[in-house]
Write a structure and sequence with these properties.
heterodimer, A: 253 residues, alpha/beta, Rossmann fold, two-stranded antiparallel sheet, 5 helices, 11 strands, 23% strand, B: 748 residues, alpha+beta, 7-stranded mixed beta sheet
């Protein structure tokens, strides 16, 4: 299968996502320039981390106007799997592909460190290989990851089971001290109503190889490989959770 | 007509003016005077330091590029080169901490990618006054935010460094930034202009009035009026630089490029003259073609502006379109502003009319060189006198245990997580040793290898003995690299000193350079480049002489990397090297006695080399599980740090006593907190101990089993008596919260 990694001017995790897709997962991938108007037949789209257009306005506010975003929207509307990581998540919010907005971190400082997130639902193409309740240790690196949505929106996305990752303690408990940025409901990752568009602040591509200190991010990227494989995860993205897919220990080791 | 006041404003001396008239055969106009003033400034010309720098070792089979280019380069195997340099941005950071530090980062990154290398790592070495001063907290906060703001955005991880707090830097903080990039050894690009008729192109941000005279500012002392110089500090745009970085690296692949140079200090002036001078050619430009941000700028202002994120390049004739196309893709516009000539002159025109014409060599090779007078500083004899025998006992309440906790909580020793958590240290997914674990270590994708790097300096040591202090800085940086299991290969230096026109300062400088040279020769790490920052004084008070050394080393197998933390309970702790209870210039002496006195620890470079060879061998063969060097705070602090971040795993050690004082408590402290050099603490699986000790003995490195990991306490015995017994929890809390706590107090 083929990944398309979109490159905005100012993206800086594009090469990392490309490396994870190709060298680690063994898939093919294209770097797609933001002025392009074709996703070149990709099966999955990655909006990588970085500071698209410098993010001098709101994060992601300029990137949504890039020509490639029209194609991304069409791809998403057709049910294609799209993941926005960090700045990519911010772009998805600005583009209206996911609900809500980002505020500056609670401490008003950029934070880069490993955090723990709990997988809430496994019926998305990016969590279907995980166990429900599985706690992943994955790094964050952002200054604006304080997720916010008004209460009615929040109520809706919780009801629709769209919150797929929450910041927790290492043993999976919700705790304010484990929330690195003040996100409402400790939201670290979100999916669309159609469940195929996912945004997350932690960087799974930074936790894919033993040398980097964690391989917990693999499950996110491996999920989409499984979801699109001929057999796939059980059901449409293994709705209902509980699906574990093949053991992940075999990957990349 | 140039009058005395104009000369002074340009920082030029009357005899220097006479020289200018001699070169030109006439009086210079104001534009030419401005050009001379920046090129002959200390910052650009190294006029006070050059005679000393020439004595440094710069050769070695691994050296691909020594000093003189935008950065140095060493071969790291598999056809690859590590391109690296360290630079200071002290003066701007004092005046405007955020932008000063940010543009420091931007400047050093440009130096690296200008060489054709993709930057993969940043480190920094920072010095401030006491954190108890509100002004210092503000400076630290601004500098760290500036480094983060630039590095994070451009996507180069900040993987390590050091932060030191010392009253000596209160009026003049130091911000030294190191960057390293990777290139194919055969693809290194140089900053040359050659080939008569080749086009000279300008690309990047537009030129504004910011930073005019930045180089001159960096060549003068500070006083209470310095804040008025704020307009001389530039404003950084990391997004623009990210575009430039990607576009330049893409342009270099086209083979249509002759040379490339960033516009750093002295902007367009420096880049045109240096490129011409290196290529043995002349450069002619027309300033009216230079993209400008403001209207009505004079040729003088355009030539002297230090606006950031600008590059100058020379294109091969007939291949210009290829280069222009790449820049267009990145929404950058390469503009032709002139061409290479054969006459060796820098010729500046304004709408066709010549406004300056100066021989390149007058600005570069023929710039003044001074052998400034030197004398031993008056303070030295008294400062070096430390009579431990008659030292009054530290306050009776201060036990060895409490001293350890206090040292761990002193900001210089304490964890710097508060700072590095603000830096993206993982982007590019190469970081295999996180900040705070020792050296910065990055794997090199596509190979089995990794690079380790460390920046170190100790101003207090250099104040007490600049020669030995500088040698110790080289030794410590190389030792840190070796503690990661990497073989040190090359070094870069950033020399921060006071006013060189004062003979005592010049003496400090000369001695420090001698010390660096001696250590670099002995440890096999040639200097490949660096930077000199003089005039670090405010109101006539100089900083401690502070050479900061960056060392880069190679690890053949990335997965064999070592870091400081103990790994397994029940492992044996071995100390390499000998503690002699040396307290001169130590953290202990400052903390417990309020003294900065004595002479820094002795350094036997042969032993140091053997220790480093031993570590590299042990790491490669997987014989040790952790390694951490003894520096500030001595052995006790080192062992404690090995226990931090392990989830509370403790250690029990027992060491020999030393007899350096009459007071038994001072002797105890000397054994625990003395800072004898060339020592490393390793942890070893018990069945490997014999082999490790044999290997040490074969290299004549003193080695001794001093204890075992395990439990949840730090227990330390001196001469058979337990004098420290503290829970890892308590010690770690003191260490990990020290800096944050000082910021919290501010709010309360």
């Amino acid at each position: 299968m083929k990944f398309a990694v979109v490159v905005f001017p100012g993206s800086n995790c594009d090469q990392d996502a490309y490396h994870a897709a190709t060298a680690v997962l063994g898939q093919t991938a294209d770097l797609v320039w933001h002025k392009d108007t074709s996703l070149k037949g990709a099966d999955v789209v990655v909006l990588p981390g970085g500071f698209a257009h410098g993010d001098y306005l709101r994060t992601g506010a300029m990137a949504r106007f890039s020509p490639i975003m029209r194609e991304v929207k069409v791809f998403a509307d057709r049910g294609g799997p799209v993941i926005g990581i960090c700045n990519g998540f911010q772009v998805l919010l600005e583009a209206g592909l996911l609900p809500g907005a980002m505020l500056r971190n609670r401490g008003l400082k950029y934070r880069c460190e490993h955090v723990h997130v709990r997988v809430e639902h496994t019926d998305t193409p990016f969590t279907c290989a995980a166990r429900q309740g599985q706690v992943l240790r994955i790094p964050i690196g952002h200054g604006e990851g304080n997720y916010y949505a008004p209460s009615d929106v929040l109520e809706r996305i919780e009801k629709n089971r769209q919150v797929i990752l929450r910041y927790t303690t290492p043993d999976g408990r919700l705790d304010d001290g484990a929330n690195p940025n003040g996100s409402v409901n400790a939201i670290a990752g979100l999916c669309s109503e159609g469940r195929n568009v996912v945004g997350m602040m932690p960087h799974p591509e930074r936790a894919c190889e033993p040398l980097l200190g964690s391989t917990d991010g693999l499950v996110i990227l491996q999920s989409v490989v499984q979801a699109l494989a001929p057999i796939g995860c059980e059901g449409p993205f293994a709705r209902g959770g509980g699906s574990q897919g093949p053991a992940l220990q075999t990957i990349g080791s | 007509m140039i009058d005395q006041q104009t000369l002074e404003r340009h920082g030029l001396k009357p005899d220097e003016y006479d020289r200018i008239v001699g070169f030109l055969g006439r009086e210079p106009n104001i534009t030419e005077l401005g050009i001379f003033s920046v090129m002959w400034s200390e910052h650009c010309s190294y006029k006070s330091s050059r005679v000393h720098l020439k004595t440094l070792p710069t050769d070695g089979p691994q050296v691909l590029q020594g000093p003189g280019e935008n950065a140095g380069a060493i071969a790291i195997g598999e056809g690859l080169a590590a391109v690296f340099k360290i630079e200071s941005h002290n003066h701007p950071s004092f005046i405007e901490p955020y932008q000063g530090a940010a543009t420091g980062v931007g400047g050093i990154i440009r130096d690296i990618f200008t060489m054709g290398a993709r930057p993969i790592a940043l480190l920094n070495s920072l010095r401030f006054g006491s954190l108890d001063e509100p002004a210092m907290r503000r400076l630290l906060e601004g500098v760290v935010a500036g480094i983060a703001g630039y590095g994070n955005s451009i996507g180069i991880p900040t993987v390590g460094g050091e932060i030191v707090f010392e009253p000596s830097y209160s009026g003049n903080p130091l911000v030294n930034v190191f960057c390293l990039g990777i290139a194919k050894a055969t693809d290194i690009i140089k900053g040359v202009a050659s080939g008569v008729g080749n086009g000279v192109y300008y690309v990047g941000a537009k030129t504004g009035r910011d930073g005019i005279h930045g180089a001159t500012m960096a060549s003068a002392e500070f006083d209470e009026k310095s804040a008025e110089k704020r307009p001389a500090v530039q404003v950084g745009d990391p997004f623009m630089e990210k575009l430039l970085l990607e576009a330049c690296l893409e342009v270099m692949k086209t083979d249509a490029l002759v040379g490339l140079q960033d516009m750093g200090a002295a902007g367009l002036t420096c880049s045109t003259t240096e490129m011409g001078s290196r290529g043995g050619a002349g450069v002619e430009i027309d300033v009216s073609l230079v993209p400008q941000r403001e209207s009505g700028m004079t040729p003088y202002e355009i030539m002297l502006s230090e606006s950031q994120e600008r590059m100058l390049l020379v294109a091969k004739q007939g291949r210009e379109a290829e280069i222009e196309r790449v820049f267009e893709k990145w929404d950058l516009h390469a503009v032709r502003i002139g061409q290479v000539t054969s006459d060796g002159l820098l010729r500046v025109k304004d709408k066709g009319a010549v406004v300056a014409e100066i021989p390149n060599r007058a600005l570069t090779d023929e710039a003044p060189v001074y052998r400034r007078p030197m004398e031993t500083p008056k303070y030295l004899a008294e400062a070096q006198a430390l009579d431990l025998a008659s030292l009054a006992p530290a306050s009776p309440q201060l036990t060895a245990r409490d001293t350890l906790v206090a040292l761990l909580g002193s900001p210089t020793i304490a964890s710097k997580q508060w700072a590095y958590r603000q830096y993206d240290h993982m982007v590019q997914t190469n970081t295999i040793s996180l900040p705070g674990m020792g050296s910065g270590v990055l794997r090199i994708k596509g190979t089995e290898r990794a690079l380790a790097m460390s920046v170190d300096g100790n101003g207090r040591y250099c104040y007490l003995d600049p020669r030995r202090g500088a040698s110790l800085a080289v030794a410590e940086a190389a030792r840190n690299v070796a503690c990661a299991g990497a073989r040190p290969l090359g070094a870069t230096n950033c020399l921060n000193f006071g006013n060189p026109e004062r003979p005592a300062i010049m003496w400090q400088f000369a001695k420090a350079v001698e010390g660096i040279g001696e250590a670099c020769r002995a440890l096999g790490v040639p200097i490949t480049g660096g930077n000199v920052s003089l005039y670090n004084e405010t109101d006539g008070r100089a900083i401690y002489p502070t050479p900061v050394i960056g060392v880069v080393g190679i690890l053949e197998h990335a997965d064999r990397v070592l870091e400081r933390r103990f790994k397994v309970s029940g492992d044996v702790i071995i100390l390499f090297g000998e503690g002699r209870g040396e307290l001169g210039g130590s953290e202990y002496l400052k903390l417990a006695h309020g003294l900065v006195r004595g002479v820094p620890p002795a350094l036997d470079l042969g032993r140091e080399r053997a220790l480093q060879d031993l570590l590299v061998g042990l790491g490669a063969d997987g014989l040790v599980r952790s390694a951490h060097d003894c520096s500030d705070g001595g052995l006790a602090v080192t062992v404690a740090e090995c226990a931090f971040g392990t989830g509370g795993m403790g250690a029990e050690i027992s060491i020999e006593g030393v007899e350096v004082a009459r007071d038994p408590r001072t002797n105890e402290a000397a054994a625990l907190f003395g800072e004898s050099a060339s020592r490393v603490v390793v942890s070893v699986q018990s069945d490997r101990v014999t082999e490790v000790l044999q290997r040490a003995s074969a290299l004549r490195v003193p080695a001794r089993v001093i204890g075992e990991t395990g439990g949840n306490r730090l227990r330390m015995a001196v001469a058979g008596k337990v004098v420290v017994d503290v829970s890892v929890d308590e010690a770690e809390r003191a260490w990990s919260t020290a800096i944050e706590t000082r910021f919290a107090k501010k709010v309360a």
